């Protein structure tokens, strides 16, 4: 079994000894800057949706017309949206710290 693996390993090395196999598949180059940018965009989208939900909850609260059930539902929407904003910001801070550290 190890002889088969060593055969394939030697078949995929170039002159310098670095692994290089031409499989015909596209090569993707990803680094921490690409990952950071992607995650920043995702967290921005999550944050924008959460802010939109706060606005919708506030409008529902205004339009509740004193009905305690509608007011409680609107208050719950705003609280959950604010929790979502806190989570999105916290996740952005953690990801920035971890990717900046490594």
Structural overview:
The chain has 102 residues and is mainly α. The protein has one domain. 74% of the residues lie in helices and 0% in strands. It contains 3 helices and no strands. The protein has helices at residues 2-11, 32-62, 68-101. Helix 2 runs antiparallel to helix 3 (68-101). 4% of the residues are buried. The model has no long low-confidence stretch (mean pLDDT 81).
| Count of helix runs | 3
Task: From the alpha carbons, calculate the radius of gyration and give it in angstroms.
Answer: 25 Å
Structural class: mainly alpha
Biggest sheet features: none
What's the helical proportion of residues?
over 70%
The average pLDDT score comes to 81
Basic shape:
rod-shaped
Overall tally of domains: 1
The end-to-end distance, rounded to whole angstroms, is 36 Å
Order of helices and strands: HHH
How much of the polypeptide forms β-strand, as a percent range? under 5%
Say how many strands there are. 0
Keywords:
mainly alpha, single chain, 3 helices, 102 residues, 74% helix, 0% strand
